[in-house]
């Protein structure tokens, strides 16, 4: 009997995987904290890893911005000559003496993290 070539390459969805027991424990803990099964949690992580990033993420995430690029009165930050709204991830206010990394971009709002 000749099998259809499409069926030969169809994946079952099962992936046997060996990982370090300590990593297994950490992953199970994270899954539990999110109220997910370990399988569901791992599927979510894998999907996030292969999902295309947004245009904003590709353009801005990873950029480092110095404190002199902030307009504190209007809560704006300038990148490549354009002003964006921002949120600070790990500080309550901008310190002009510090630098910040863009960790997320959502439309015209950037999330920044103060570099230590």
Automatic annotation (TrEMBL):
<dbReference type="GO" id="GO:0006355">
    <property type="term" value="P:regulation of DNA-templated transcription"/>
</dbReference>
<dbReference type="InterPro" id="IPR010985">
    <property type="entry name" value="Ribbon_hlx_hlx"/>
</dbReference>
<dbReference type="InterPro" id="IPR008651">
    <property type="entry name" value="Uncharacterised_HicB"/>
</dbReference>
<dbReference type="InterPro" id="IPR013321">
    <property type="entry name" value="Arc_rbn_hlx_hlx"/>
</dbReference>
<dbReference type="Pfam" id="PF05534">
    <property type="entry name" value="HicB"/>
</dbReference>
<protein>
    <submittedName>
        <fullName>HicB domain-containing protein</fullName>
    </submittedName>
</protein>
């Amino acid at each position: 009997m000749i099998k259809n070539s499409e069926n030969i390459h169809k994946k079952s969805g099962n992936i046997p995987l060996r990982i370090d027991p300590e990593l297994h424990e950490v992953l199970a803990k994270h899954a539990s904290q999110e109220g997910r099964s370990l399988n569901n949690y791992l599927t979510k992580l894998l999907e996030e890893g292969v999902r295309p990033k947004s245009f904003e993420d590709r353009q801005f995430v990873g950029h480092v911005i110095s404190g002199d690029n902030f307009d504190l009165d209007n809560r704006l930050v300038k990148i490549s000559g354009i002003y964006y709204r921002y949120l600070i991830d790990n500080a309550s206010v901008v310190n002009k003496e510090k630098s910040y990394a863009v960790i997320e971009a959502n439309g015209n709002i950037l999330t920044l993290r103060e570099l230590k």
